[in-house]
Specification:
Layout: H1 12-16, E1 52-57, E2 63-67, E3 73-77, E4 84-93, E5 96-103, E6 111-114, E7 119-123, E8 126-134, H2 156-164, H3 167-170, H4 182-191, E9 197-201, E10 211-212, E11 230-234, E12 247-252, E13 262-269, E14 280-287, E15 290-295, E16 300-304, E17 313-316, H5 335-343, H6 349-370, H7 374-379, H8 384-397, H9 399-433
Parallel strand pairs: 11-13
Antiparallel strand pairs: 1-2, 1-8, 2-3, 3-4, 4-5, 5-6, 6-7, 7-8, 9-14, 9-17, 10-16, 12-13, 14-15, 15-16
Length: about 450
């Protein structure tokens, strides 16, 4: 009977290299334990498990000795007298470890170790797979020394500057969620020192513009999917009712979604305006590359600091009051925003309960009206024109509910705006008293 010879998986490439002048990599010999018995030897099965070896690219054109047997990690490229100190850096994607880069003091990344145990070698724009081809002696002390430190991004100075003067740094008793609370904002402004006041400077593309964020992440309330948020109607700040603030209430319905029918405040064309250059305020906190910018009238914005090198930033000082833009640039409320304020403890629970009660009335009214279309729908001859006609019937039948909710939203918007204007006047006095209006 012919026997099958089974090789230990010590990297077949190492055994094939036995014919070369240098000896192949072999597992260490068993050693005696304190009891006198031979200890089992763990045989490396991946390139990365070899802590000290000579490696070669699979095309045989590049080679190097990698010594990870101690600290620091050392690398010597074939043909070079330099022994280079290496810094290990994790490679992660969406938080998951993929491998490790070995980085030279000047920031080059010649060696990559994958989580699966393979090695790659990089030179110029070329990438090579690598295998171990022989054992190696431990490398001497590095001749090229230094731990690699990634250079700080250009915006880091802005991040550091604003972090140091933020409310969370200088007045740590204030909580994150209180950045949406007008009473707490007023208290923070009255305690703010001159260096804590800043103003917005515009710059960069539209994608980088600050966005209003009513409450901190984690306090966001309900949201209605499948409804519209814009209207072609032009916003006129001199208008009446909710239109003055940039919106109008509308009901949305479909015959096939009886429980998905809601009312929603749609924003008029031209609303909201971008955050105006020169807007004064304070930095509540800095989260990574974003600053929570609270204006002197209680507006809350999220400003991307990573674009500060493009001209967008929060500059020192509130600036001269004569150059401040008008307050209340973005004051319109809607059901999701009110629910967020309730969740953050800014508004009472009754505010959202009353709005949602009316929303349920709309759903009931819409479903009842759509029943009149069931016969034609069931016939299979229900056209797009028919649907538009029935949507108009629903809007007419349920308009009183839409108007009632719009009136309620208008009252909430005007009440909060009144509080914001009072806050703004007190803030103006504080800025002047500490000499920050320069």
């Amino acid at each position: 009977m012919q026997k099958t010879i089974r090789l230990i998986p010590v990297l077949s490439a190492l055994l094939l290299a036995a014919c070369e002048p240098t000896p192949p990599v072999t597992p260490p010999a068993p050693t005696a334990s304190p009891t006198g018995t031979a200890e089992a030897v763990t045989v490396p099965t991946t390139e990365a498990q070899l802590m000290l070896a000579h490696f070669k690219t699979t095309d045989g054109m590049h080679g190097f000795t990698l010594d990870r047997s101690g600290d620091p990690i050392k690398l010597q490229i074939d043909g070079s007298n330099d022994v280079v100190e290496m810094t290990k850096e994790e490679d992660r994607f969406s938080g998951e470890l993929r491998g490790y880069w070995l980085i030279t003091p000047d920031g080059k990344r010649p060696v990559y170790i994958s989580k699966g145990g393979s090695l790659k070698y990089y030179t110029g724009r070329d990438e090579f797979q690598v295998t171990a081809d022989r054992t190696a002696k431990a490398l001497p002390a590095p001749t090229v020394k230094g731990k690699y430190e990634a250079p700080k991004p250009a915006y880091q100075a802005t991040v550091d500057r604003l972090t140091a003067i933020s409310v969370k740094t200088k007045l740590p008793k204030f909580k994150t969620e209180e950045s949406a609370n007008l009473t707490k904002i007023g208290e923070a402004i009255q305690q703010a020192t001159a260096d804590m006041f800043v103003h917005f400077e515009a710059g960069g593309s539209e994608a980088w513009k600050p966005s209003q964020e009513a409450v901190p992440q984690g306090f966001t309330g309900i949201a209605f999917g499948g409804v519209g948020y814009k209207t072609d109607d032009k916003w006129d700040p001199k208008g009446k009712g909710l239109a003055k603030w940039g919106g109008k209430n509308r009901g949305f319905s479909r015959y096939d979604t009886p429980k998905g029918n809601h009312m929603q405040v749609v924003k008029m064309d031209g609303y909201p305006p971008p955050l105006a250059a020169g807007t004064p305020g304070i930095v509540w906190e800095v989260d990574g590359t974003y600053a929570v910018f609270v204006t002197l009238d209680g507006g809350r914005y999220r400003v991307d600091l990573s674009t500060s090198d493009k001209g967008q930033t929060l500059a020192a000082g509130a600036g001269p009051q004569a150059k401040w833009p008008a307050p209340l640039a973005e004051a319109l409320l809607d059901v999701p925003t009110v629910s967020s304020y309730v969740k953050a403890g800014v508004m009472p629970q009754k505010a959202i309960d009353d709005l949602l009660k009316l929303d349920e009335e709309w759903t009931t009214c819409a479903a009842k009206t759509w029943k009149g279309a069931e016969k034609k729908i069931d016939s299979g001859k229900f056209t797009v024109a028919d649907e538009k006609e029935w949507i108009q019937k629903v809007d007419k039948a349920c308009q009183k509910t839409v108007d009632a909710q719009e009136k309620m939203i208008l009252e909430l918007t005007e009440a909060r705006s009144k509080e914001r204007l009072a806050l703004f006047e007190k803030a103006k006095a504080r800025v002047a008293s500490v000499g920050a209006d320069k």
